[in-house]
Amino acid sequence: MSRDILRLGKETLVYGTSTVVARLLNFCLVPFYTYYLATADYGLAATTFALIALLNVIFLFGMDQSYLRFASEAENKNEVFQHCFYSLFVHGILLGTIMFFCAQPLAQWVGIGANNARLIQLAVFILFLDMVNMLAFTKLRLQHRAWYFAGVRTASIAVNVLFNVIFIAFCKKGVESIFWANIFASLASLLLLTPVFWQELKQKNIRLNLSLQKQMIRFAWPFVPAGLASLLVSVIDKPILVKLVGLSEVGIYQANFKIGVFMMLIVSMFDQAWRPFFLNHAKDQNAKETFALVLSFFTAFSSWVLLGLIFLMPALIQSNIFGTFHLIAPQYWGGLHIIPMVLLGYFFYGLYINFMVGPVLTKKTSVLMWITLLGAVTSITTNLLLVPHLGIAGAGWAVALSYFVMACALFIFTQKVYPIAYQYGKLALLGALALTSAGIVYYMAPHLSAFGLIVLKVFVLCVYPVAAGAVVCYKTHIRGK
Known about the structure:
Elements: H1 2-27, H2 29-36, H3 39-60, H4 63-71, H5 77-101, H6 103-110, H7 117-142, H8 146-170, H9 176-192, H10 194-201, H11 210-220, H12 223-235, H13 237-244, H14 247-257, H15 261-280, H16 287-318, H17 339-354, H18 357-361, H19 366-390, H20 392-417, H21 424-444, H22 450-473
Helix pairs in contact: 1-8, 1-15, 3-7, 3-12, 3-14, 4-5, 4-7, 4-11, 5-7, 6-7, 7-9, 8-9, 12-19, 13-14, 13-19, 15-16, 15-17, 16-17, 16-21, 16-22, 17-20, 19-20, 21-22
């Protein structure tokens, strides 16, 4: 088991390095946007990219997950790849054509106005390219080629950042520049992934296997409503906010929502390694013991990151980095109070990813649709109830509550179909430790100077990992495989 845990940690680190570099490069655009774009323009881009996120699920149709599942068992992995690729290619051409010619009504429907239909048309190219690239990325994950994966992702984001700066700062092309930069970044990924596609598509002896195609589609389709519902949790707030508080408030909300990227980094880097890991080790004799231990380690580490970001990020944003320059322009500071809620939501999403082991290993993925629909309903309901009274803070609470509900529901289902004896006592102690740490800081805050409060926060963050590590490792015996 020790070798398995170490391998998961190593691959998480590699994926994480690429994800951290890529997301940090992408995050560099947040202060850039806040200084070069008006809040309404930033809100326009945020709303359109929320639509892209939803449509990406429809374009991909869950075939990346289907490829991961079937290729991990198939003797002829090339056959699985080609069936996924050609079905996605045809599917993407049809959807893209419809979307391109229906851009005006679609733009009107999402709230950006028919005069911005060109943004929808540019989004078509982003969606198609990302759909194709995702299949190659999935193959790299299955083959544990983490460094190749990391290099392509990082290069793509670097291209994205470069062209954003060129188009916005020097060419003065405005909000449309963001979409063109994304197109160039996706093209860069496609170029770098060409060897992966060539290795698979050069094989000419593959015939259409209708039985395999049906099985793959049957496995894949529940990921579409499930993915849509899951994304609604994080993107439905944008169109609701557009209707209730306007594009300018959406821009403020989005700039601060982006701070959650640091918590999402932890979840994403773990997710990239976790799914191939539990698929490969599901038949191990001590698999469930390993999965339980993984949850404890994940909770300990991610709760430490959560506290660190909540304690330090608002102060960092408002501090002067280079004289009068700030991490986020002052006109966007009205949304700082949503940051803890967004971070907490991503923490709960990390727990949800841990519990994904149940439906995937038992091939009962259709339940994901119902669980994520529950999360979407929670998000929509909470937004509609709270935003009129709390403004963008209501949307922040909706994110946290929705992911919490999803994590709880998936835990209950997993325990029914694939029961795992998680280390509940240790998990409870970790929760108590996190709440106590937060309580000490916020209780002492009114009684300390700004400098004294920072010292206390740093001290708590130094002590926390030692205490959390002691909790997880107490009477834990990891057997070698």
